Amino acid sequence: MIDIIQNTVDGVMIGSSYALLALGFTLIFGTMRRLNLAYGPTIMAGAYLGTYAFLALDIGVLPVALLVVAGAAVAGLYVERLCFRPFGEGAAIASMISSFAVWMQIEEAASLALPHHLNAFPRLVSGQPITVGPFFFRLDHLAMLAVAAAAAALVHVVLHRTRFGLGVRTLIDHRRAAELVGVPVTHTLTLAFLLACAIGGLAGFLIAASEAQITPMFGMWATTKGLIAMMIGGLGSVPGAIMGGLALGVIEAQAQWLFGPQVRDLIAWGVLFAVLALWPGGLLGGRQVAEQQAVQRRV
Amino acid sequence: MLQVSDVETAYGKIKALKGVSLSAAKGRITCLLGPNGAGKTTLMYTIAGILRPLRGSIRLDGQEIAGLTSAAIVSRGLALVPENRLVFPQMSVKENLEAGAYRRKDAAGIAEDIARMYARFPRLQERREQLAGTLSGGEQQMLAVARALMSRPRILLMDEPSLGLAPMIVEEVFSIIKSLNRDGVTIFLVEQNAHMALGVAHHFYLMEQGRVTFSGEPGKLAEDEVIQRAYLGTRRASA
Ligand SMILES: Nc1ncnc2c1ncn2[C@@H]1O[C@H](COP(=O)(O)OP(=O)(O)OP(=O)(O)O)[C@@H](O)[C@H]1O
Ligand SMILES: [Mg+2]
To answer: What CA–CA distance (Å, rounded) separates A163 from A161?
Structure first.
């Protein structure tokens, strides 16, 4: 029992970074209705910029964090210009395929910039875990949870208290109607894309700082974790992304404890298939799908 | 107030509007009738800046608006209540109204206008926290009108507001149109329900196959013939 609680706590802490990954992913999918496969590599590009500066200039961990977020946003802008802006409404497949091409391109570029497969990344915090009774908490995981929660709260405020956020929410809901009420669509989509990549960059920083290392494979890893967490929560749903990320973290932690670390990713994929088979709209998306069907019947 | 001259709009190679000219006078209700596929919705979307015309001019109070974005056009005081209402289905009634005021920055005025909408449409107040997608068709139509009014338009375009509504609700929609017009809003209305539309219109146009084929005041052309042409498009056989 104590183990199960400990696993859940660990899972929530790791899952908070998955939640951020999924949040960025879902902002892009929700507003554009397109899958951005280059999402993870965009984050990896930011992380590589951070680690490059760390290795070359020996800068502190906070400037590295800023560089990772800014780098991911700039790389995101590149992806948006190349894979999303040129294709009009509806060309979802063209966007997805070209985002795959950019993925490969970014991975190549990262390997050329830092030829070592494995590169050191600065830790955010270090020190002994805190123990409370039978439980213990890793400091870097606690920091991860705190930063992720603050970032998610900030995103919530932006979405619900600003005009830009209102525009994003209308675009997620109904693009044509958003245009009708006067939302500047292209501008809002670009900003939402940038915000999504910055959120992803923050998640990438938290994960790399906790692992204290980074490889070019991080791009693929981030895309798949973000995708799975987003799908568990419900495609394009903001609260769903958070729930999905936390759920994925907890399930992985329990599975790892039960079956060993080598099954962690296998379980993650298994969970994705199980969710898609049982609740095709995702855990929170399911309700929305039902409502959408009710809506469609009326129109 | 609104002047459309020689507007052509195409979907790919197919021209849906083949040189449309008409106008809507300030303070009046102008109505556009026409059979299915005549191009009425295409015209509404073109005026609202959602579709771009290939050529022609659209003037609002003398200023050219053809080619502006829909956002700029909303800011200039034109709002469209679209065909099929297009409310934000996953947002609450209240959020839909806030979205309608997207172009405005006067928070106090927006809150006041939301209260005004609730006074005008009490059903919306009762359901203000309900998701718009779960409202009845009539309630969604009221919401679509209220959302458009939230931008404080000087001219309101309405595309088939009676579509799919029960006769009693249709009566209600038309009485709202009349009362809005009494409050000084210029109205440009597309309708299939020719009988109801001619009851409120000061002026009307008939559109068939992408062209305006008749312009007049209700009562002058035998109503039966207008209704027949609006529904059946008698020109279609001879064109
Ligand atoms: N998105 C589109 N792509 C291609 N053709 C279109 C599109 N929308 C409309 N059309 C065509 O343009 C013509 C005019 O359509 P429009 O919707 O403007 O007619 P309407 O007068 O509003 O008809 P209704 O009374 O049925 O609403 C039709 O022939 C239609 O098939
Ligand atoms: Mg139409």
So the answer is: 7
Q: What tens digit of pLDDT does each residue of A185-234 get?
A: 999 999 999 999 999 999 999 999 998 999 999 999 999 999 999 988 88
Instruction: Kindly state whether A173 is in contact with chain B, defined as any CB-CB distance less than 8 angstroms.
Output: yes
Beta bridge partners of B18: B8
What ipTM describes this predicted complex? 0.91
Q: Ligand 1: list residues with CB < 6 Å.
A: B 11, 14, 16, 34, 36-42, 83, 192
Sequence-distant (≥ 6) Cβ neighbours of residue B100 within 8 angstroms: A181, B79, B146, B147, B148, B149, B150, B151
Mean pLDDT value across chain B: 91
B→A contacts (Cβ < 8 Å), by residue, are 48, 50, 69-71, 73-75, 79-80, 82, 84-91, 95, 98-100, 102-103, 105, 131, 133-137, 140, 147, 151
Domain spans, chain B: 2-86+153-232
| pLDDT reading at A254 higher than 50 | yes
B103/A177 Cβ within 8 A: no
- Report whether CATH 1.20.120 matches the domain A2-298: no
Over residues B83-106, the pLDDT tens digits come to 999 999 999 999 999 999 999 999
Question: Please, is A90 exposed, middle or buried when counting C-beta atoms within 10 Å of its C-beta (0-12, 13-18, 19+)?
Answer: exposed
pTM: 0.90
Question: Which residues of chain B are within 8 Å of residue A289 when distances are taken between CB atoms?
Answer: none
Q: Indicate which ligand has the atom closest to the C-alpha of B83.
A: 2
**Does residue B222 surpass a pLDDT of 70?**
no
Domain boundaries, chain A: 2-298
For residue B133 the two structure tokens come to 């997608």
Architecture of domain B2-86+153-232: 3-Layer(aba) Sandwich (3.40)
